[in-house]
Design goal:
The complex is a heterodimer of chains A (about 325) and B (about 260).
Chain A (H helix, E strand, L loop, with lengths): L5 H5 L10 E9 L5 E10 L4 E5 L6 H8 L7 E6 L2 E2 L4 H7 E4 L11 H11 L4 H14 L15 H13 L5 E5 L7 H16 L3 E6 L2 H7 L2 E6 L2 E6 L1 H5 L5 E8 L13 E6 L2 E7 L3 H13 L3 E8 L2 H9 L12
Parallel strand pairs in A: 3-8, 3-9, 6-7, 7-8
Antiparallel strand pairs in A: 1-2, 1-4, 4-5, 9-10, 11-13, 11-14, 12-13
Helix pairs in contact in A: 4-5, 4-6
Chain B lengths: L14 H15 L1 H21 L9 H34 L2 H6 L4 H31 L9 H22 L3 H18 L11 H9 L2 H12 L7 H24 L3
Helix pairs in contact in B: 1-5, 2-3, 2-5, 3-5, 3-6, 3-7, 3-9, 5-6, 6-9, 6-10, 9-10
Classes of the chains: A alpha/beta (about 325), B mainly alpha (about 260).
Chain lengths: ~325, ~260
């Protein structure tokens, strides 16, 4: 997609700098005195893909709804370029494009029609919106469904149509809440390419996700939220730096077997189904392998694997949750 | 400054363009339901106009005229007042409501587009009901220019009531319950196709403050001579309800919890 796309529908000013998102000490307290967001401060630059990670109930949705003007902060500020989005929620609707996690309301709308109409509602130029809608359908490899109504689309294709609706006239800030849900691996890769390109075309992209593995490959920077607070922020490499010198031990337990007693050097143990994961110092990998072999010999585990730590291990350490399947840490 | 991001060219992003875009969205979203609703309204309006004659051996012309000029009001408000809140409740239940609210649509353009869709849904049945009733009971209408503002105001009031209910009430299940309650209460006990004097005194008094009897009065005044009374008051009551409901809709759409 060349200049035809985002800049054509938004105009040449889209490429200008100075349209960063700046969140300063944002706090949201609900009536029940729950602090859903507790003095969150973040900055997302134009052109940057920024990941917002955290378990269910961490406060991600509350943060997003304040950005798009659906919730009023209890304190703090949100600025997008020169605009104060707390004081001017109408500006938020103009400047932010939002893909919710819930299904898009397009039951009776045909795929291409839904994309074009959203572009028109967002003030895009008709010819440019039409051209970009066609490009998006082609680049997401969903052209064969262009005339299909939403009710007849599979969950993944409907998700991709929703993405195209949101980015056909992209805002200065594009907020994507779990954009890859239900999307097949082939189109998931195409989707990530387009998300990267959104950044290159000048939008700041805020990516809300549980899926740390995907985020690790796709975001420039990220923040991990837990309990309404930012518990870590930085590039994926910087966040992983604390785990340098450590290895990840993955044990596939035999079905029905309880979690075995772990050696003292095994840190941050987490069990999801029959998968037991922990982190060990690389100087102790010999001991760890011996222990894992013993578990296999005893019939407690079926197999084991030792590999480099990932961002997911950082995430587990910070939040106590596995990323995508909601598993809890072992007691 | 704001428009730079999404509406770069002069003439684009205007109110009229927003209205046109929203109207196309509404019509496309309702394409199956709207066709069905128009068909049902045609059948029910025409059926009621014919069926009422079966209750009487001989129905006086004035009585037939009263009923025939009351039925179009029901046609005109069915989509806006009853189907509208149900649609919004569905959006709230499915999670699509946040996406709709995140779009940069002026409230006035959204409201006008919904009124136009309501008019499109009710007008065919209104015309058919009047034509069939005229043929069945040998009626002749005295159509005046006031029919146009009357129809516009009735459609607007019905649509505003529906939007206010849909947007101001948070819980989808409550919206659906209240809508169904209104369906029976309004069409069963509001004097649109029957004279208010036939109702118990308390109900007649209650209806003076509600908009439904007044909807029938202004439409009837545009179709007959001398059959409708207190027409000016009816316009005022309807205008007051429309303005109040618009304010409620605007407030609900701008509301941040």
């Amino acid at each position: 997609m060349s200049l035809t796309s985002a800049e054509a529908v938004r105009g040449p000013a889209a490429a200008s700098s100075g349209w960063g998102l700046e969140i300063d000490r944002l706090t949201k307290v609900y009536d029940s005195s729950v602090r859903a967001n507790d003095e969150i401060s973040l900055r997302v630059e134009p052109g940057e893909v920024f990941g917002l990670l955290g378990p269910n109930g961490a406060g991600k949705s509350t943060l997003v709804k304040q950005l798009i003007g659906l919730l009023k902060p209890t304190g703090g500020s949100i600025r997008l370029g020169p605009h104060d989005l707390v004081a001017d929620p109408a500006a938020a609707r103009q400047l932010c494009s939002y893909l919710p996690q819930a299904p898009m309301p397009i039951e009776s709308l045909r795929a291409e029609e839904a994309i074009r109409l959203t572009g028109a509602i967002r003030g895009g130029l008709r010819s440019a919106v039409g051209a970009r809608a066609s490009e998006l359908l082609a680049e997401l490899d969903i052209e064969e469904w262009r005339k299909t109504v939403g009710l007849r689309l599979s969950g993944g294709i409907r998700r991709l149509v929703g993405f195209a609706m949101v980015v056909v006239v992209p805002g200065r800030l594009v907020i994507l809440d779990e954009p890859t849900n239900d999307v097949d691996p082939h189109r998931r890769r195409l989707l990530w390419q387009l998300i990267r390109r959104l950044g290159e075309e000048g939008s700041a992209v805020l990516l809300v996700t549980h899926n740390v593995m995907e985020a690790e490959k796709s975001v420039d920077r990220l923040a991990v939220i837990d309990g309404g607070r930012v518990v870590a922020e930085g590039t994926p490499s910087a966040l992983k730096a604390a785990d340098r010198g450590r290895m990840r031990l993955h044990l596939m337990l035999a079905p029905g077997k309880p979690t075995p007693d772990l050696p003292g050097y095994a840190a941050h143990p987490t069990r999801a189904g029959n998968n037991l994961v922990c982190v060990v110092d690389e100087t102790l990998t010999g001991d760890a392998i011996a222990w894992a072999r013993q578990q296999v010999s005893d019939g407690v585990a079926e197999e084991y694997a030792l590999g480099a730590t990932s961002l997911e291990d950082v995430y587990i350490r910070l939040t106590g949750h596995l990323s995508a399947n909601g598993a809890e840490p072992t007691p | 400054m704001i428009g730079v991001a999404v509406a770069p060219a002069p003439g684009h992003g205007s109110w009229a363009a927003s209205l046109w875009a929203q109207l196309r969205w509404e019509l496309a979203s309702l394409r199956v339901f709207l066709t069905l609703l128009v068909a049902i309204q045609l059948l029910s309006g025409v059926g009621f106009a014919i069926g009422i004659g079966f209750f009487f051996q001989h129905i006086p012309v004035q009585a037939a005229l009263f009923v025939a000029t009351g039925l179009p009001t029901i046609n005109l408000v069915t989509l806006g007042f009853l189907a509208g809140p149900q649609q919004i409740a569905g959006l709230k239940a499915s999670g699509g409501y946040d996406f709709i609210r995140s779009l940069p649509m002026p409230t006035s353009a959204y409201v006008v587009s919904w009124c136009l869709v309501s008019l499109a849904a009710g007008a065919p049945a209104m015309v058919a009901t009047l034509v069939v009733a005229a043929a069945r009971y040998h009626l002749s209408y005295q159509v005046s220019a006031s029919l146009v503002p009357a129809v516009v105001l009735v459609v607007a009031t019905g649509a505003m009531l529906g939007l206010a209910l849909g947007h101001a009430v948070d819980k989808p299940s409550l919206i659906q319950f209240v809508t169904q309650f209104f369906f029976f209460a309004v069409f069963g006990f509001c004097p649109m196709a029957l004279p208010a004097s036939q109702l118990p005194h308390w109900l007649e008094t209650l209806n003076l403050g509600l908009p439904f009897e007044h909807m029938a009065v202004v439409v009837r005044a545009g179709l007959t001579t001398g059959l409708a009374s207190d027409v000016a008051r009816a316009y005022l009551v309807l205008a007051a309800w429309t303005v109040a409901c618009y304010a409620l809709v605007a407030r609900a759409l701008a509301r941040r919890h």
